[in-house]
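quick one
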Amino acid sequence: RLLHFALPNGEISLDYQPQLDRAGRIVGVEALARWNNATLGAVAPAQFIPVAEQTGMIVELGQHILETAVMTLREWHESGIELEQFSINISMRQFTHNDFEAQVRELVQRHLDARLRSRLVFEITESIVAEDINRVIEIMQRLKASLGIRFSMDDFGTGYSSLSYLTRLPLDELKIDRAFVCTLGRQEEGPAMVATILNMAEVLKLKIVAEGVETAQQHDFLMRHGCTVFQGFYFSAPLSKDRFVEFFRSRH
Ligand code: C2E
Ligand code: MG
Ligand code: MG
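structure w/ magnesium ion:
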């Protein structure tokens, strides 16, 4: 398979999508994997991440992504780009791999001081609850306690996790899935669902990030209902590293 050679050939890179607060300041970023192949062109992560998961390649790929992201966080800090949070997607298969915790610890301790460590946010998905939940909770707690890493539930509302599981996980943040955000201003029940999720996040004392914000109307609705962080094409698409730096500087 071509994916097998993607890493050694240097075909995997990261894009960075800005996250803005209520005042429109850039407060965070999400790192998103990109695969550019000579024959296939640009392959979407929704296509190659599942393949990498099935073949087990996600462990190596995920480690590479983590390393790249950690180095970017440090480099940006050194050049005066301070972000409150730096989010990285972690696949379930990667998270539950035996070496994951030790590799994260080694990488983070080697490259980041305590202040930068606490800017890391690992985005996990609801599929993680299909795993041994107690083990997942333990790993999360250890990474939080020893390194200050924060956790976010990505694509919230699209999976099959129960609320009782959700409250047991030591989460810091929920990301409302684009599927909900794009119903705003369309279906009748869409806005009510989003308002309910925002309420729930408040009760659970979780930070909430709205994903896939594409229009001013969606942004207005989310603002009125107390959403704190926004991410989507309305502000910016995912950008290459250099273009993110330009975007940040043009706004600050
Ligand atoms: P995700 O983590 O939920 O990432 C958000 C996706 O929504 C990204 O797609 C982003 O480009 C897209 N997006 C952002 N704003 C908008 C918008 O306003 N409108 C629309 N229509 N889309 C928007 P992308 O980059 O194609 O990634 C798809 C998924 O692949 C991600 O969903 C994530 O689950 C996975 N993925 C991406 N990078 C990684 C990675 O490094 N590791 C792992 N394990 N998974 C990754
Ligand atoms: Mg994500
Ligand atoms: Mg998502």
